[in-house]
Amino acid sequence: MNLLNKRRMKLFKNFNFDKLKTGLTKTRQKLFDKISETFTGKAVVDDELIDQVEEILVSSDIGIDLTDKIIDDAKKNFKDEKDRSPQVFINQLKKSLSKYVIGSQEKVVEFDSTKKPYVILIVGVNGAGKTTTIGKLALNYRKSGLKVLICAADTFRAAANEQLDVWAERAGVKIIMKGKNADPSSVAYESVQYAIDNNYDIVLIDTAGRLQTKTNLMEELNKLNRVVKKKLEHAPNETLLVIDGNTGQNGLQQAKEFSKFVNISGLIITKLDGTAKGGIVFQISSQIDVPIKYIGVGEGIEDLQDFDINQFVDAIFNK
Ligand SMILES: Nc1nc2c(ncn2[C@@H]2O[C@H](COP(=O)(O)OP(=O)(O)OP(=O)(O)O)[C@@H](O)[C@H]2O)c(=O)[nH]1
Ligand SMILES: [Mg+2]
After folding, report:
1. Ligand 2 centroid vs 49 CA: distance in angstroms?
2. Are 201 and 118 in contact (CB under 8 A)?
3. Which CATH class for the 111-264 domain?
């Protein structure tokens, strides 16, 4: 392992295939089960069947553009196959789906111990799952042996501090908060200062939910970013946009708009348990060049998983 790899490391890997598969049940029903039904009793996949598969993909949250690409790609590769059975076609489909996501996944940013404190900014629209995700991340980083500080920069919503405080306690980490309506940038600034003074390894900054269409709130995020950078030049080291997996097409819009104001290094798609709209993951990845770092598959502190495209595809396209 070279020095660079040693410094930039994946500190924890959370992955449980069964949990992922259970979480994605509704998405699987909408995609794989429907495709399987179409293939029932058919030994050979012909163009008419492929047209039906195309319709199923379009009506899921994969979207028209990506479906076009996937179907073209799968058709092209399937043409050369001697075995024209449904299983072989499904395998082609899986490969084609992964193909359009894998490129952006190579850009995932990992923890770097030379950047101390390492600062992660969490942003997103109202109710996306930011605060919950911070609690989950804090626990994972602490378990990895890091000294973790949580910064409560959501000074807007009543009870935001209390909610985050509960998560900090669950995760067993320190939290910095100020009164309601304090300037979020000042809480962030002071937290980073505190982390520097007290030898913290990592700072997780929670922010208020904001609609991507509200320019003043988006400017506020940009300011917070600048203020943190002023205190610590390398920070924020990661800016993660949290997207609720149920929001479908709007999630894509959120990613595009937030990117105009802050440099999004990764996405966290939450609430993939219980939604039928998991196909949105493919659409988002194929349309914006930002990797998906984690996915949320439940409300509990252990329910944050690393995103792995091949496992994700397997969890949807398996009985
Ligand atoms: N099922 C499920 N629920 C989740 C997940 N992540 C978050 N939630 C729930 O989503 C709701 C909102 O979560 P919060 O963490 O408060 O969201 P937020 O983005 O901080 O919300 P605001 O600060 O109000 O913008 C809570 O009820 C969470 O329990 C997940 O992965 N799965
Ligand atoms: Mg919150």
Report:
1. 45
2. yes
3. alpha beta
